[in-house]
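This part of the workshop introduces the protein records we will be handling. To make this concrete, we reproduce a full record directly below:
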Amino acid sequence: MESARGVVQHDKCLLTELADGTGVLLHLETKFYYTLNTTGVEVWKALGTGAKTEHEVALKISEEFEVDVDTAALDVRAVLSMMLSEGLVREAG
C-alpha cells in the first residue's frame, strides 16, 4: 500500500471498542468478526475521524502512542494492508 493512496472504512463494518482498548470489528456483509489490538482500534478510529492516507493515520498513531512517525507508519501499513485484503477498508476515490 502506498502512503499517498487514500482509504476509507467500509460502510458495512462496525467496531465495538472494549474497556482494555482492544476491539471487535464486525463485517456485516460477510458476518466475520475481527479482533483488533489497541493499534488496530486507533487506526480504525483515525479513519473514522477523517484521516485518509497512511501518513495521516500514522501521524495520529504517533501522537496517541508517543512513538516516532516512521515506527507508527510500519504498524499502520501492516494494519491497513490486512484491512484492505479483508475488505474492511477500501481505496478512496
